[in-house]
């Protein structure tokens, strides 16, 4: 019975792990299937080669002993004529003393060329003739649809957004909104909302509107062209409602060092 060396055991373990993970992806898209197969093949070839060399060294065999096999493999892959036989494939072309050889195309190149032809035929049939797989635009549409479903499931029914948000007046909610404001908003709008880099939030002039829905939308999506980031990835809808309500509660607080008015005057009556 052949001795099961440590490198061979590692190779077998690696193959079992990779194939197990690959088997779990049976529902993946066809293109991803091929990409995964190609990556796995390259990994197996690389790892097998390294471990083979390590095993040879551990058994006291020199890498030089492998040279005949490596040269044979090179000849099979390149199909190159030895220098002493080049006269047999010499063409009659002579360009300023530069001669041309009629070498065959390397077998490895021809193999890849044939593979691309087969792959192109499979791709054409899979995506355009039988339409089993989705093209990029269809994949994008489907991923957006799934994301919307997951988003709705995560937020649950009655989730707060810019269409149904209401202004809060509860002291506890406003206190929580103040904490959020001081942590995330004060750097640009000032601790009292007086305005620094961002506009003054205590006067009657507003750039994007002073309704709770408008303020909530600005907090949610930000104003990238003005340098304000979107907070929807860092604050949940309740936190955005609380901080928006707190911002509106700052009107008329008259803090010191107020920034000059910006935007359009809003009539709150």
Compact summary:
This protein is 54% helix and 5% strand.
Q: Report the top-level CATH class of the domain at 171-265.
A: Mainly Alpha
**In this structure, how is the largest beta sheet organized?**
2 strands, antiparallel
Give the mean pLDDT. Answer: 83
Structural class: mainly alpha
Count, helices: 8
**Helicity level:** 40-55%
Low-confidence stretches: 23-28
Q: Can you say what the CATH homologous superfamily of the domain at 171-265 is? A: Cytochrome c-like domain
User: Total number of β-strand segments?
Assistant: 4
Strand order of the largest sheet: 1-2
Q: In angstroms, what is the radius of gyration?
A: 34 Å
In the CATH hierarchy, the third-tier topology of the domain at 171-265 is known as Cytochrome Bc1 Complex, Chain D, domain 2
The helix-strand sequence is: HHHEEHHHEHHE
**End-to-end gap:** 94 Å
- CATH architecture name of the domain at 171-265: Orthogonal Bundle
Could you say which overall geometry the principal axes of the C-alpha atoms support?
elongated
Amount of beta strand? 5-15%
Structure description:
Helix 1 runs antiparallel to helix 2, helix 6 (171-189) packs across helix 8 (237-249) and helix 7 packs across helix 8 (237-249). Among the domains are: 6-61; 171-265, Orthogonal Bundle (Cytochrome Bc1 Complex, Chain D, domain 2). It has 8 helices and 4 strands; from the N terminus they run αααββαααβααβ. The longest helix has 29 residues, at 30-58. It is 54% helix and 5% strand. A two-stranded antiparallel ribbon has the order 1-2. Strands 3-4 form a two-stranded antiparallel ribbon. The chain is mainly alpha-helical.
